[in-house]
Amino acid sequence: MKVKVLGFAGAEFPGFHPPGFLIDGKLLLDAGTIGASLSENDQWKIRHIFITHAHLDHIKGIPFLADNIIIKNKTHNVTVIGIAPALKTLKKNLLNNKIWPDFTVIPSPKNAVLKFVEIRAGRTIQLNGYKVTAYRVNHAVPAAGYVVEDEKGKKLLYTGDTGPTNTIWEKACSMKIHRAIIEVSFPNRMEALAIETGHLTPKLLMKELEKMKIIPDELLITHPKPQHIKTITNELQRLRKPNIRLLKDGEVINI
Ligand SMILES: [Zn+2]
Ligand SMILES: [Zn+2]
C-alpha cells in the first residue's frame, strides 16, 4: 500500500494543506486537499473518497474535483462514502445549489458526477481489493475513522478528527495495524480547548495509547495547527516513543 499525503495539517498555509491521504493513487481518505496537490490526470484516478466528517477542512476538495470533472468529461464519476450524518450535511449545506451546484444530480441523476454511499459505523465495505471499516470517534460533529486493509493484509488506521475516544482503539487496535494516522491538533497547554472541540494534544494521545491492546507499528501524526507546530513537535518528541512522528505535506508512506 502506498499512501501519498496530499495534505496533513489542521489549517491552511503554504506547505500546510488540510487532510487528504491518497491510497495507491485511487482511494482517498478525506478530501481537504485534492486539486491543490494533484495534476488533472491524477485527479481522474480517484474513484472513491471516504470522508471522516463534514467539516470544511476534510471535504473542501470535493466540490472543486466535481467541477473539474464536469468541465473535462461528463461520463466520469466519483463515489463519496461516509456515515449518514456527514453525507446529509454535505448535501444540505454544500451541494445545495446555493454554495455549490448539486453534483449528485448533474449532469443527470442516473449519471451524476458524485455518488453518495453510506457506511455504518462498525461495518466494512469491500471495493477493488480493499476492505474499509468505519469506527465512530468523538468529535464536535458526527465522525468516523477508518481502517483500510489491502489485498496483502496491510492495515492503515486513520482517525480523522477526534478527542479522547474508545471504540476505534478497543476494536481496531486489538489487531495488528501497520501504520496509524492519528490526529494531534493542539499543544498540551491548550488541552481544555482540545477537549471542548474534540481534538487531541500530545499528552492526551499518551492516554489514548493506553487503550490500545496492540500499539500500531508506527504512529503518524496529522492535523496539527501550523501556528503551534514547533511546540507540538517538541511535545511529541518528549513522549519518548520511537515510533511516533509528525507527517509532512507531499510525503509518500510505503506500507
Ligand atoms: Zn473536524
Ligand atoms: Zn479538521
Element layout with pairings:
Blueprint: E1 2-7, E2 20-23, E3 27-29, H1 40-44, E4 48-50, H2 56-59, H3 61-72, E5 78-82, H4 84-93, E6 114-118, E7 124-127, E8 130-137, E9 143-149, E10 155-158, H5 167-172, E11 179-183, H6 191-197, H7 202-209, E12 218-222, H8 229-237, E13 244-246, E14 252-254
Parallel strand pairs: 3-4, 4-5, 5-6, 10-11, 11-12, 12-13
Antiparallel strand pairs: 1-2, 1-14, 2-3, 7-8, 8-9, 9-10
Bound molecules: zinc ion (2 copies).
Task: Explain what this protein looks like in three dimensions.
This protein is α/β, with parallel strands linked by helices and 255 residues long. The chain has one domain (2-254): Ribonuclease Z/Hydroxyacylglutathione hydrolase-like (Metallo-beta-lactamase, Chain A). 24% of the residues lie in helices and 25% in strands. It has eight helices and 14 strands. It has helices at residues 40-44, 56-59, 61-72, 84-93, 167-172, 191-197, 202-209, 229-237, and strands at residues 2-7, 20-23, 27-29, 48-50, 78-82, 114-118, 124-127, 130-137, 143-149, 155-158, 179-183, 218-222, 244-246, 252-254. Strands 6-5-4-3-2-1-14 form a seven-stranded mixed β-sheet. Strands 7-8-9-10-11-12-13 form a seven-stranded mixed β-sheet. Strand 12, helix 8 and strand 13 (244-246) form a beta-alpha-beta unit. The longest helix is centred in the N-terminal third of the chain and has 12 residues, at 61-72. The radius of gyration is 17 Å and the shape is globular. The chain starts with a strand and ends with a strand. The structure holds zinc ion (2 copies).
